[in-house]
Amino acid sequence: MAHISASVYTSHIPAIGAALDLGKTQEPYWQPVFKGYEYSKTWMQQNKPDVIFLVYNDHATAFDLDFIPTFAIGTAASYAPADEGWGPRPVPTVQGHPELAAHIAHSVIQQDFDLTIVNKMPVDHGLTVPLSLMCGQPPADHFSWPCPVIPFAVNVVQYPVPSGQRCFALGQAIRRAVESFDADLNVQIWGTGGMSHQLQGPRAGLINKAFDNAFLDQLIADPAAAARIPHIDYVREAGSEGIELVMWLIARGAMADVAGGKAPHVAHRFYHVPASNTAVGHLILENT
Fold first, then answer.
1. pLDDT over threshold 90, residue 41
2. H/E segment holding residue 118
3. Of 64, 118, 122, 281, whose CB is crowded by the most CB atoms within 10 A?
């Protein structure tokens, strides 16, 4: 049967993608950010999965205010890179895994979670920046990224957005779905976005280091408590865009300890301020 071997958590800041694409990674401002992912790239080479289930949010690329799915799973064979603001990143097309994606969709819907099934969509920096940070920067004419990816888009842009508790429970349903797939696949689940940041209004530029690091502590040691954080606390403490952290709870809910297994091994933890006007958070947890 398929299994989830690890979860990865990382910010997906568009300016990081621009720094990669424009060759600025060694500039003094950006060097500390990318240094925090050097271990991660080595770890990824040594722990390459068969499939990545990547939780992210779309930034008005595939969906706009005319159509806002709360949870959307990509079931296509491939996904072209696209983006708002900077334009499409010069990176490879993302290859999907339609069989596993369709199985997860069926299983999760049967577990009473309503998903939007998407058979064709572009993917933006929310998905491709984490891939670049973890896998390195292959040229756009390269065949593909190191492994297939199942995109899972979450609405954290337009209220109402899903609660942390629902995202945590959804992660548990995804784990059960993966484990019921009749193939020997090593799957990683990634939660992306965050950490604390606000892009507009009087508090634009807000970064809360104390909240961010407390969230990382809780995510590791007491994820059920992290899942109970109310929306208003994210807004007050982490800024209007801090709500993206609920996507990390989907990945955390899929780990073995939540279902009674052993506590995960913390393979890597990194935090840095600033990158653009955002706090960068990163974590790798391995099932043991």
1. yes
2. strand 116-118
3. 281
Q: What is the distance between the alpha carbons of residues 167 and 155, in angstroms, rounded to a whole number?
A: 11
Pick the catalytic residue from 125, 142, 272, 282.
Answer: 125
Label residue 227 left, alpha or beta by phi (over 0 means left) and psi (-120 to 50 means alpha): alpha
d(CA 59, CA 87): 12
CB 138 within 8 A of CB 145: yes
- With b for 16 or more beta-carbon neighbours within 10 A and e for fewer, the 207-223 pattern comes to bbeebbeebbebbbeeb
Most distant CA pair in the chain, distance: 52
CA separation for the pair 113, 82 (Å, rounded): 28
**Annotated catalytic residue 125:** yes
Query: Distance between CA atoms of 39 and 165, rounded to whole angstroms?
Result: 31
**What's residue 85's pLDDT?**
64
Note the Cα 150 to chain centre separation in Å.
Answer: 11
Task: Check residue 242 and report its DSSP letter.
Answer: G
Token output for 34: 């990318």
Name the active-site residue from 197, 231, 268, 282. Answer: 197
* pLDDT level of residue 87 (50, 70, 90 thresholds): confident
**What are 202's two structure tokens?**
């009087």
In angstroms, rounded to a whole number, what is the distance separating the alpha carbons of residues 49 and 76?
A: 19
Tokens of residue 91, six digits: 């990176």
Q: What is the C-alpha to C-alpha distance for residues 191 and 186, in angstroms, rounded to an integer?
A: 17
Active-site annotation holds for 197: yes
Instruction: Kindly list the distances between the CA atom of residue 40 and the CA atoms of 43, 119, 173, 189, 284, in Å, as whole numbers in the listed order.
Output: 5, 31, 27, 15, 8
Round to whole Å and give the CA distance between 241 and 252: 20
What is the set of domains in the chain, with CATH numbers?
3-227+238-269 (3.40.830.10)
User: How close are the terminal C-alpha atoms of the chain, in Å?
Assistant: 17
- Considering only CA atoms, give the Rg of the chain: 17
